[in-house]
Amino acid sequence: MDHHSENHKTSDENNKERFISLQLKTLRYLCIWPLNSDNQIYYLLHKLSAIIRITIMILVSIGQFIQLFFMPNLGLLSSVIDVATLTTSAAFKWVFTIIHVKEFDKLNRVIFDKFLEVPLVGSKNSNMSMKSLLKYKDLLCTGYCVSGTLIMTLWAFTPLLNSFIKHDIILDKHNNASDQFLSPYHDLKMPVNSWLPFSPTWSPLYQIVFLIEYYTFIESAFVYGFQDCYFFTMLYCVSCQMDILCETMKNITINLSVERERRSGNFENLESSRRRVEIKELDGNEGTNEYTTVDKIQYDEVELHNILKQCIEHHTILLKFLRDYEKLSQTMIIVDFLHAIISLSFALLEITVSQNIIEYTKMLLFLVICIWHQFLNNHFGELIIQKQMSIADAAYDLPWVERSPQFKTSMKIMIMRSQQPVILNGLKMYFLCYKTFMEFTKALISYFMVLRTLQEGK
């Protein structure tokens, strides 16, 4: 573990966690990412904090599943199962990411070390740089996490808000002698409908349990929000790299034409000794500095093919990154999908049986943020697919007809790779794209209608 921490620290110092700095800071809060410290005490406290926090979330989730057996009807069942799947999936994703932190570290190092800041050749588009393309990512990530946290906070405090709406303060409700020993908290609900081996109706037991369950809600929001922002930012960085790759290919021949005009038939002003060697090899005579038009065409062929090979190497790095990410994220994607389809189906049912405006608003906001989360999963999956296809288009748009056989072969390889895009998926059962999201929405409505029919039948 110390070796891993040292390697990670070296990577941070050399590359400054570029592109995903904020996202790694949020993962450190969740104790997923190692601290930038060699202090063994800090390291142990960091790990102990993760163990305690995850244990609390798991225990609350287990209590919810036990509570399912005590629900007399489908309406009350829906008030448990939608939250139970949320906290359980959040705990799973939390543990999964901690276990596979070394694999994610390898992906981060690719971003730190291999991703380009600007295109390989000059571009007239001043916005075609990682700094410009990622300009608003931190703001969007912050807004996404804050909105989820606010909704979870509203949900947690709904029992208290309901008590004010009903105007039945418990202290005024029990005035007769038979109720004099009732707790003022016995009619108040908890943020989570979880089974407990005791009745938390006395102070400060009620407040302690309330805070623990509220904490579980907030941590679930943090796990989903922080990990989503980390994963989405990684995928968006890859899509930006593909934009930069397309821009490089678009400007290859333009830059060569400019260089030919600048040199005006004389290669004495070449800035690179490597290029001089290549030209002399083409000429076959090291004793002269005069070159023919044929030599210039041959030089451009060599230069063009060299740039294309660099593009292919860049493309290979991106494809390998996506394949590694796909293998690593498959389990989390399918867990995410199962949580969404179960939780949202029951959340829709709970909206139909809401008893007041607070309950209705709570469930509606929960529904919106969960659907938005699932849409973003599919959006970035679709974005990666489209960017891969755009590379094939950019390669085909190159002036390949009059190029050398070596150039044509390299270009064909690049096009063939791009026409079979890497598609992010959950164990080959759920693919992240717009088409799948539409199917998910239809399935969600169908399941809700079935549940509503069952509820009305009872």
Automatic annotation (TrEMBL):
Belongs to the insect chemoreceptor superfamily. Heteromeric odorant receptor channel (TC 1.A.69) family. The keyword Ribosomal protein does not apply. This is Odorant receptor. It is found in: Cell membrane. One of its GO terms (biological process) is signal transduction. Keywords: Cell membrane, Membrane, Olfaction, Receptor, Sensory transduction, Transducer, Transmembrane, Transmembrane helix. One of its GO terms (molecular function) is olfactory receptor activity. It is a multi-pass membrane protein. The chain crosses the membrane at residues 50-70, 76-99, 139-157, 205-226, 333-351, 357-376. One of its GO terms (cellular component) is plasma membrane. InterPro entries: 7tm6_olfct_rcpt. Its main location: membrane.
